[in-house]
Fold each of these.
Amino acid sequence: MEIMKISVWSTVFLLAVSFTFVSANDGWANIEGNVQDNADSMADACVSVKAANGAWGSGVIVSHSGLVFSAAHVYGHLGEEVQIFLKDNRVAQAKVTKLDTKHDIAVLQIHGAIDIEPAKVVDANTIETGRTLIAAGHASGYNAERRSPLRVGFGFFERHSGMIYSTCRITAGDSGGPLYDEAGVVHAVHHTMDGSGKYSSHVPVVRFFELWPELARQVAKD
């Protein structure tokens, strides 16, 4: 699988101005079409995770070998064995192989074959202000009667914190789930919703590769 590299820059300002980026009707139509085209793959790559203590979180499959990127606060310790709920109501076992509480990121390794196309990831620190983003996740835990809901919003990069913020709402059970662009490429994993309920925060995927460079090689290899 190829890790996409892009060069982006942004200046953080009021999110309201983001609407100028897609003001034309045909712009909205193109975005909507892209989201619809990639909705199935975005939902399929997003998994629900049940930690050893019973807590629910989410994650995203990023390699054919079963690597999953997620959020550290979902798990209790390195080496923890967890349950992964895949599409088609399949359940797999996985192990927490990497954990960094400072950046709130974790890596899981699924045991055995998964037969799911992994999500593409982007190796970039920032996004352009006003970018259309899609949050996937399993709110409130796994539900066999539904797939991962997709929530569309706008985002910006906040340089001081190094986080991506979006208007995509997330809640308990979504933590660690993927933040996609309209093409289905993962830019970040979910951290938390702020106290005002206006913005969600997300950790850029590049943090995984900065902390653990071997992951970039493994994801690219797969």
Note: Helices lie at 25-45, 206-211, 213-221.
Amino acid sequence: MKKSKKVKKSNSWKIKQHRDQFFKKSKTLGYRSRASFKLIELNQKFKFIKKDSSLLDLGSSPGGWSQIVSGIITNGKILSIDTKFMEPIKNVKFFNCDIFDQNTHYKVQSFFKEKIDVIISDMAADTTGNKSLDSIRTNQLCSEALNMSLKILKPKGVFVSKLFTGDDFIEVKDSAKLLFKEVNFFKPKSSRNESKETYIHCKFLKTL
């Protein structure tokens, strides 16, 4: 019996993962995700995570990014949020909920008590098999998180998020420039070459 296309695609992905140097390195170092290296590179580039930062990690599961920030932030506060479960990480508070739910906003405000320094997001929409649609849906998450940052970030705060180059890339870029004084883009070496993902780094909210 021939394997279905879905099974073949799954096996191909597994093979690619095991050949991936960052996947192997993440296992060796005990990281929960190869995505950990993306945040490491981003922070090396922009230096936005400090030991006393108050930080919100969106779409945090399985915890690759939260794991990295927990090793840097020693005198601040870290809150991670995802609709998917995340195993506990030392010095990280986790809420299993939807960040775009109004009740979650109240929980975030209650946890931090004040506006925060950094928002990071590696959120991506569940894949449908349609790359164009998946890109649009993920960029929509980035756009919604951008708008939310207005209510949560300090004036000198930083917003970092996954973003895909595609039909609506310019739209999200323009929105970011309306909200922040400084907007940069960076594709980490740990992002796969064939991937259209990049990361947006925004700093200094504009006075509205």
Note: The domain at 33-205 is CATH 3.40.50.150 (Rossmann fold).
